[in-house]
Amino acid sequence: NTKFGAYLDRVKFLETQNRKLQAQLDDLKQKWGFDSGKVKDQYDQALVSLRKQIDDVTRDKALA
User: Given a cut of 90, is residue 30 above it in pLDDT?
Assistant: First the structure.
């Protein structure tokens, strides 16, 4: 009975730890997603412009 009680205590402890870790993970996922969205917004227009320039140069080279 003592071993079983210790086992149950350990299971409860690990379940509590899992909940805490899951909450931390969820928090980090939210922050990372928000921050990566800001970075994308910051550079998106520049990327569109650079892709257009690459397409223009590629087309000009093909016509030359």
Answer: no
